[in-house]
Amino acid sequence: MVRYRFETKEHDLFRKTLRQFLAEEAVPYYDEWEQNHLIPKDFWRKLGEMGYLCPQVEEKYGGLDLDFSFGVVIGEELERVGSGLIGVGLHNDIVVPYIEAYGNEEQKERWLPKCVTGEYITAIAMTEPGAGSDLASIKATAIRDGDHYIVNGQKTFITNGIHTNLAVVAVKTDPKERHRGVSLLVIEEGTPGFTKGQKLNKVGMHSQDTAELYFEDCRVPVANLLGEEGKGFTYLMEKLQQERLFVAISAQIAAEDMFELTMTYIKEREAFGKSISQFQNTQFKMAEMATQLELGKTFLESLIEDHIAGKDVVTKVSMAKYWITEKARDIATECMQLHGGYGYMEEYKIARRYRDIPVMSIYAGTNEIMKVIIAKNLGI
């Protein structure tokens, strides 16, 4: 079951154990979670009990002190079940690393152990109704008032928004500045003035809770400032690389799953007296998709290695995020077409995959923004 050249026997055992856990604790209930538009909190706690939440966290805070390669294994196996589990990966590999990297010792001791057990579910709140790709234009403010900040503003499209106990929120501590005015505050559930909106009704990823967050004269202790005031934009840019890599990995696994579903279907489905896998058009389509998948996997393998080694991967991550998510979207279309009318039925997993995949080219920075970054780094 070893998938990449950097994996060891430990990764293999870790993957097998996790896959078995998910087969028992997630797969039988996933359709129900999709219908309820929510994953139950006890599933998060079970993940925590098994060591599948934030394994990279240091042992002194309750983690396993593992590197990002184990996070890759977790993200891939969750995606094999369904894209609605992406919030777990966001918690593990996107939000908690902000606390690890920029939090002080008191903050780490206060928050990390609960993130590891699943008692706390985290969210990252950047996007606003009027600010998506242009993060420097956010309007949420945090004005200093003694030992507190007074936070006012609204965030939208927040993954884990309903369940979140702990949100890393991008705010303007200096509204007159753009990039240098952005800071990160950790705002805990129950803080007066912090409320959650309704679950947003998305096209796909139904089991993943997504919500708006509201802050009205919300008093947040200065002790909850993450890192330095005015450095928030820099922190976001640093951590967005791992987020974009995570999205590319998820899209790759989703595409591979769609391919496998379609391979099974075309061998079983008959038309005009023979399996549709025997038609040349079907063979050509499958050959094209297999090639795209192999290219994506090879690219990711190299990219993951470089990221773990601490190399500058900004350009390559942007390439992978845009190219793999677009190919995954193309594969979704081709696979649904090969399923014929059955592919349009909710009882077939390909229908859910078809709904889930488009947003991957939008969040964590749109693919258009990825191309802007690539072009800039090419010197044009």
UniProtKB/TrEMBL annotation:
Example of a GO MF term: acyl-CoA dehydrogenase activity
InterPro entries xref list: Acyl-CoA_DH_CS, Acyl-CoA_Oxase/DH_mid-dom, Acyl-CoA_Oxase/DH_mid-dom_sf, AcylCo_DH-like_C, AcylCo_DH/oxidase_C, AcylCoA_DH/ox_N, AcylCoA_DH/ox_N_sf, AcylCoA_DH/oxidase_NM_dom_sf
Residue span, Acyl-CoA dehydrogenase/oxidase N-terminal domain: 8-119
Annotated PROSITE patterns: ACYL_COA_DH_1, ACYL_COA_DH_2
Pfam families: Acyl-CoA_dh_1, Acyl-CoA_dh_M, Acyl-CoA_dh_N
Name of the featured protein: Acryloyl-CoA reductase (NADH)
Cofactor: FAD
UniProt record similarity statement: Belongs to the acyl-CoA dehydrogenase family.
Zinc-finger in keyword set: no
Stretches assigned to the Acyl-CoA dehydrogenase/oxidase C-terminal domain: 230-378
Organism: Metalysinibacillus saudimassiliensis
Keywords assigned: FAD, Flavoprotein, Oxidoreductase
Gene name as annotated: acrC
Domain Acyl-CoA oxidase/dehydrogenase middle: 123-218
